[in-house]
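Problem 12. The chain below contains 516 residues. Write out its predicted structure in token notation.
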Amino acid sequence: MQKKSLLLLLPVAAAAGAAAQGRYNIVYIMTDDHTAQMMSCYDNRFVQTPNLDRIAADGVKFVRSYVANSLSGPSRACMLTGKHSHKNGFTNNEHGIFDGSQQTMPKLMQQAGYQTAIIGKWHLVSTPTGFDYYDIVPGQGDYYNPDFIKMDGSTVQEKGYITNLITDKAIDWMEHRRDRQKPFILFIHHKACHRCWLPEMKYLRAYEDQTFATPPTLYDNYEGRQAAAAQEMEIGNNRHMDIVYDTKMYRPGADTRLTDLYLSMIGRMDTRDRADYDCFYDSLSADFYRRNLSGRALTEFKYQRYMRDYAKVLKSLDDNVGRTLDYLKASGLLDSTLVVYTSDQGFYMGEHGWFDKRFMYEESFSTPLVMRLPEGLKARGDISEMVQNIDYAPTFLDIAGAPIPDDIQGVSLLPLLRGEHPKNWRKSLYYHYHEYPAEHSVKRHYGVSTADGWKLIHFYNDIDVWELYNLNDDPQELHNIYGQPGTEKVTKRLMKELVRLQQQYDDADALKKNGK
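Solution.
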């Protein structure tokens, strides 16, 4: 595939900021653990996200958008470098520290004359490099009255709800802090919708009258899928989804694995907010413990609490995406700015009985990706080509008119944004998850997914298991058909493609596990 399609952009008439340079601004909004099932332009069964949908309505929606490693920190490193985890060095959250001295897309954007800024969640341990400005939260950040790390190294606690604060800071940077003679790329990285889904107070009671339909695979028995059976992220299991931390069913004397962490998080609240919060959840908790639920009744209770809390956090996020779009329009920036919205990966909303992510199965392997296109980029509607988060870096460089280094492994999406459909577009994607042993006990695995609906996965390390799925016949990935009669030909084809991708991306360790 042609990777370097350098576009010489003409100045956009009457557009602010980038017009003098003749290049588009870029606003990249990324959330944490937001899945396409909970975004109404993809799936309107559960919630409405009108502001996120505005982005798709004025641009494009990628319907086959995926990540290279379904885990927060590694996913961010893939985005920043345009490289798979084994090449950028940040393979897992447990022991990873991002090497900020390496080549990154923000550094290359600076070299191309762009001003760079990141606000919100960083989650890569090391100090950000390649940014003219940053204002980031430590670690996962806190929903209530969060801390922010400033460029002088100081950490300051700020009053408010984190989603609102991050948006405030992003708008303030665009309005007051940037150099208006330069085009800019601004990374707005939200904590939402990360565990444990603590709502903005104005939405504390939202969705309480809504009963969410349970997914048909909520009681998956994992037959024929050894790695799926070994995970630790089941909603119905109180050791996996903590009854206090995750569903807020706290009572004095509760001593779950995560009770202390939960109390420290809500302990950041102001006195008045905490009183209202306790009033709401104490009544729910009293009723819950009085009912003494078990079995499927407990699972379904926890599922409803999970869905409601997640939806509340998402509602604030959607509001703030709307605020960002409104600012861009009011300031005259909208028509000269590419607005990108995505998440660091997908998430399980009860499918297979799970929450969290990590697996190469569709719900976590896929991620929402919508873009509002500025004047001059003509694509509209759904884009069905397979794309991956390693593609963002070369895309932004291409839009900046900057060279794309040969060691970047992603491909520019710019031809797709022009409305083109290259015949030689990729027909498969490579995935590699590295973090085990770790939280949720998802085994290490790599695999290949193809445009014609096949997926081959190899779970390895303390396990040696292959899985094969025909997504056309089995979209929920319930039936592992690896080794079954009649699959020999397609298995051979996928094995060959898997090795080809591992060679292309220089994943030497994985190749050794294949015996290549």
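Discussion. The chain is about 30% helix and 15% strand. Students who got a different answer should revisit the alignment rule from Section 12.3.
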